[in-house]
């Protein structure tokens, strides 16, 4: 799993890579945790969610949306990834994910407003490369 | 890209290719240099391709790259045959600014800055996570989405002036039934919360009055202490935009295929989905006003805690991420338009019926925050704003530097120490946020305001410097 937090004038952008799409999405979770500032927190629980989308771009958008929702609705900071599996359903792609989370408490974490399609990159070459901008 | 100077501070990208109208940039040469450094010009050219767009797409002096639309972007479309684009409104629906004028002077607060900042920070939740100044349940939330600040007034969280001096009186015709359930889940615990990023709550002192008559109308004078709140619709608005973008994408694949940037996605205004989005957007706007009103109550309680009996009257509350139906003159005829303002502030001059009665003779107040080390401004809607910018002007300083670069160049603690040396006390939940919002990462707000004033779209009334600032 590898990721890089990239420059963006107003918001935050990242690049996540992996040999498979599931691995690249695992890297997305790690990038998300670093961006919010939760990457060094001690996990206290796991959280499961699933996403089903019509193509890879939409899947990345919806996947990020679930991470954002988790923080706002469950009050849980996403710390790291536990497991991700991908299922090609023909007309849709489905992801099942388990992420490690911690209570947000008084920790000063960055509030991610939303995923965006801005500058989104989804490339499969020798492995997968995903890039996206998060609105902060 | 071809860019022609029309006159001082006005540049134009001529209509070419898929553009339906030219694109205009309102900037001085130094600001234009900054605007040209990212994708702002490409984005405003794309905005000019929207069906139903009138006259020209516009970038204001604080413009910078956004999603689909640039931040500091304005586009007016025909309200019958045009389109609505959530990207022209932004994820943070009705992000906006309000200003409270207190009866305290700077000499009253000197020596109490730390106490003020600690009290505000303790009382008003900020940063990521649940918690707001007001506890509301889902039933209350439905009322808030439907009735905005009217609900606050009825429940003793506002006084009549708070509604009288708020854009749209703090209520648009929203339909709670059109707001996605996940959005409600995000919003229910966040009524009266600041958020993070560039949102802030700031105690300021009025340092300069440029226009005494208008300042009198607005209740402002030199040395007066005022409080500025910059926040929006929190998770509720963000989730509403997110989910409607996906619905648009699924319903209009042919539109997605034909546009240069998916974030510019749109729906024809006459379609049910477009009406649903506008009803949801209005409801989210109501939530944002209630959020700022709840923080207003928190500010009033905090000032009372520190100073005893203090008045803090609302000067005005402006949206800078919204679409509004308004009548404007096009080719000599009055026409109903949907004006998208994304990081742009309505700046109506005297005479528009939308302005509160108390300001009808002088034009509406326009509130423009600077960075936490720079001036913020109160302008008045300018006489030329209707002709040039659909009654709009800038919304802030505009960023120059990325957040990642800011964290490399600044350390939050150093920024706080430097500002304290200038008499500005900052408290934030996250040191990283202080670094990311350091004064040096923003454009020169004084130059943005100079261009707005010289163009006559928003005219200088007064400016303030920060005294105490809390951030997420």
User: Mind summarizing the main beta sheet of chain A?
Assistant: 5 strands, antiparallel
At the fold tier of CATH, the topology name of chain A is Archease, Possible Chaperone, Chain: A, domain 1
What about the largest sheet of chain B? 8 strands, mixed
Low-confidence stretches of chain B: none
CATH topology of chain B: tRNA-splicing ligase RtcB
The number of domains of chain A: 1
Give Rg of chain A in angstroms.
14 Å
The H-level CATH homologous superfamily of chain B, spelled out, is tRNA-splicing ligase RtcB
The overall pLDDT of chain B, averaged over residues, is 95
Q: Which chain pair shows the most residues in contact?
A: A-B, 41 and 46 residues
Bin the strand percentage of chain B: 25-35%
Low-confidence stretches of chain A: none
Structure overview:
The complex is a heterodimer of chains A (136) and B (472). Chain A has helices spanning 21-36, 56-73; strands spanning 2-6, 12-18, 45-53, 76-88, 93-103, 114-115, 121-125, 127-135. With 136 residues, chain A is an alpha+beta fold. Chain A has one domain (2-135): Archease, Possible Chaperone, Chain: A, domain 1 (3-Layer(bab) Sandwich), CATH 3.55.10. In chain A, the strands form 2 sheets. In chain A, strands 1, 2, 6, 7 and 8 form a 5-stranded antiparallel sheet that branches. Chain A has a 3-stranded antiparallel sheet with strand order 3-5-4, with helices on one face. In chain A, a hairpin with a 5-residue loop joins strand 1 and strand 2. In chain A, helix 1 runs parallel beside helix 2 (56-73). The relative contact order of chain A is 0.27. With 472 residues, chain B is of the alpha+beta class. Chain B has one domain: tRNA-splicing ligase RtcB (Alpha-Beta Complex). Chain B has helices at residues 29-35, 40-47, 106-109, 113-123, 138-147, 149-154, 160-164, 181-187, 212-218, 234-251, 253-258, 272-307, 385-389, 403-409, 412-421, 431-436, 445-455, and strands at 4-7, 10-13, 23-26, 57-64, 71-78, 83-84, 96-105, 200-209, 224-231, 267-268, 312-319, 321-330, 333-342, 345-346, 365-368, 376-381, 392-393, 425-428, 458-471. In chain B, the strands form 4 sheets. In chain B, strands 7, 8, 9, 11, 15, 16, 18 and 19 form an 8-stranded mixed sheet that branches. In chain B, helix 4 (113-123) packs across helix 12 and helix 10 (234-251) runs antiparallel to helix 12. The two termini of chain B are 39 Å apart.
